[in-house]
Amino acid sequence: MRSINIIFNLGIKELVSLSRDPMLLLFIVMAFTVFVYTAASATPQTLHKTPIAIIDNDRSQLSQQIVNAFTEPYFLPPEYVSAQTADRDMDRGRFTFIVDIPEGLQRDLLANKQPEIQVIVDATRMSQAFTGNGYVQAIIQTEVAEFTQQKAIMPVTVALRARFNAELNSGWFSAIMELINQITMLSIILTGAALLREREHGTIEHLMVMPVTPMQIMLSKVWSMGLVVLVAAGFSLFIVIKQVLDIPTLGSAGLFLFGTALHLFATTSMGIFIGTFARSMPQFGLLFLLIILPMQILSGGMTPFDSMPIAVQWIMSLAPTSHFTEFGQGLLFRGAGLDIVWPQLTALLAIGLVFFIISWRNFHQRIAQMA
User: Less crowded by CB within 10 Å, the N or C end of the chain?
Assistant: First the structure.
């Protein structure tokens, strides 16, 4: 009981110290509110309000029908430009697409000729260019077929059913993945910063002469900083994602918070491990970037895990982010229960124990060197 009381009081000290750091508090608030909201609403992966221009050399009923087909929310209202100004507008980045309708399009089409419509694409806007290219072609072909009353007859009818995201709204996926990434990032930063504050303020020497052990010091930082991130993650899930963004989640929120706690056990230990090597916050920041970027990029959130090389899959299976991402997607998107996600929870617990033991041994050695 005395040891638990010491760990609890040291953790309270960490929470008080964090409350006196306005920049870290502001970062926590923004990470779980503004960043999550922005990921869902301001950075869509699908075509959304794309600027498009039209060079209409035909001025016919068909050309007007094609122009009217480019509607919101996929495209902004089309602007008419001339062939002389098209290149300059494209160089300035005003438009992603410029559709060049040739003169005599309607006449040649009715005469059973094959006129050519040119589509100029700004390929530097990669997400819009690759996705929108198919949209533009499909719209033009649909309008031409409707105008000529020629409909392609397919021998097989394809019925598409999208599960877990019937609207194919990429914002739903982006918000959840942003929440998962912020949980990982903030837990490492807060624990590492808590350790470095002790060193910069000189309080680590005070702790060394007190009747406390390195294990107690480490556990106090793990539970206090983990609690801060867990509360912030719960607020982001229930208020920002479910209420403000109105994103449906299928799985149990309580089970998600439990899995988050296991993940925080591993990531907070990683933060202490990095903090024992860094001598200042700039050094900690550099080490943090070297670790967090591969963990987030290769965790399965940006690219499906099965699409990666086998060697990368083996390496990333040792990282907690891979299992936490799979756990979060399965639970919140597909409504998976404990009977399905228990392997990920077991892996998070095992990885957390390994990271905690390694971090504790390294922290103990650093304390011994300073004594």
Answer: N
The yes-or-no verdict on residue 369 having pLDDT over 70 is: no
| % the chain with pLDDT above 70 | 89
Nearest Cα to Cα of residue 25 among 238, 289, 270, 225: 225
Place of tokens 């719960």: 234
d(CA 67, CA 371): 76
Q: What are the residues facing 75 on neighbouring strands?
A: 50
Q: Which of 283, 184, 197, 285 is nearest to 14 (CA)?
A: 197
Is 162's pLDDT higher than 80?
Answer: no
- The arithmetic mean of pLDDT across residues 318-340, rounded, is 89
Contact by Cβ (8 Å): 198, 207: yes
Helix and strand numbers, DSSP H then E, in the chain: 15, 4
Residue 103, both tokens: 């003169």
Domains in the chain with CATH codes: 2-42+169-370 (no CATH), 52-148 (3.40.1710.10)
What DSSP designation does 164 have?
A: S
Judged by DSSP in three states, 97 sits in strand
Global pTM reads: 0.76
Q: Rounded to whole angstroms, what are the CA distances from 155 to 152, 158, 168?
A: 10, 10, 27
First CA to last CA across the chain, in angstroms? 27
- The count of other CB atoms within 10 Å of the CB of residue 318 is 12
Beta-carbon-side half-sphere exposure of residue 110 (alpha carbons within 13 Å): 8
CA dihedral 312, 318, 321, 325 (to 10 degrees): 70
Nearest C-alpha neighbor of 186 from the set 288, 316, 286: 288
305: CB partners within 8 A, 6+ apart: 299, 313, 316, 322, 326
What is the length of the chain? 371
Which of the 8 DSSP states describes residue 143?
A: H
- Using pLDDT thresholds of 50, 70 and 90, give the confidence band for residue 45: low
Handedness of CA 265, 351, 190, 248 (dihedral sign): negative
